[in-house]
Every structure is written in C-alpha cells, then in structure tokens.
Design a protein that fits this description.
Elements: H1 5-42, H2 46-69, H3 74-79, H4 95-101, H5 120-140
Length: 145
C-alpha cells in the first residue's frame, strides 16, 4: 500500500461523501422546517405547533430512512461482504437530488465515485437527525414551549 496517493485520495473521497451527505441533509432540514412553520402558522398554532410538527416529522423521516436502510434479504448482506460498504449500491436519481446537486458547495466539487457515495436513505437519516435537532433547538435555546 503506497502512502503517497492512497491516504490522500481516501481522505478526499471521505470528505466529498460527507459534504454531499451534509448538503442533502441541510436541504431536507430546510424544506421540512419551512413546511412545518407554514403549517404551524396556517393552523393558528404558531411556532409551538411548528416545533411539534418538526419533532414528529423528524421521527417519521428517521423511521422511513431506517426502513429503507434495512436489508431486505440475506443476499443484501452477502453482496457487501469485504467491500467496506454499509449500504447496497442503489443509485436512484430524483428531482430533489438534482436540486441538491445544484446547491453550493456540492455543485463546485466533483462527485465521489458511485461505489463510495452514501445512499439516499443514509442521507435522509442524517437529515432526520438535523430535523430533530432543529426541533430541540427551538425548545431548548429559543424557548418556544
């Protein structure tokens, strides 16, 4: 194993994967937060109802992402043995992902290799954690009870 390019390349690839995942998660969080605030204000509950909607929305997103991440058969686990991947290689492209890919800083960087990318359910799981964090911050930091 050569020390010159392999470690640098591995760190660069890891950074690209996480930049892509965090950008996706931030866009999911932004869309969910704007939707929850709109629902909260439209129904007369204000930011309190938005905070509760964010909590339940974050829980639903986490449950959905977990269900999508769960292997459907033992062959899913056997196919990934020894490759270092934690998710099956399913690369579906949606309009939402196209919008995320046009956001900075992802649009300025070349994407990581397809076999190294985090799957959409993995990115959604990170997004659900951020949605729950926004709900928590609304209550603990901003005092929205």
């Amino acid at each position: 194993m050569s020390v010159d390019g392999s470690v640098d390349e591995r760190l660069r690839t890891t950074a690209l994967v996480w930049i892509d995942a965090i950008t996706y998660a931030l866009v999911v969080t932004l869309v969910t937060t704007v939707g929850a605030v709109a629902v909260g204000l439209a129904t007369g509950g204000g930011l309190v109802r938005a905070k509760v909607a964010l909590f339940f929305g974050g829980c639903l997103l986490m449950a959905y992402a977990t269900a999508r991440l769960w292997p459907s058969s033992p062959s899913d686990l056997e196919n990934r043995t020894g490759t270092g991947e934690s998710m099956p290689a399913i690369h579906d492209r949606t309009r939402f992902q196209t919008v995320v890919q046009s956001m900075p800083p992802v649009r300025w960087l070349e994407p990581p290799p397809p076999e190294r990318r985090m799957t959409t359910p993995g990115k959604l799981f990170v997004g659900s954690i951020l949605v729950l964090a926004v709900s928590y911050l609304m209550e603990a930091v901003f005092g929205i009870a």
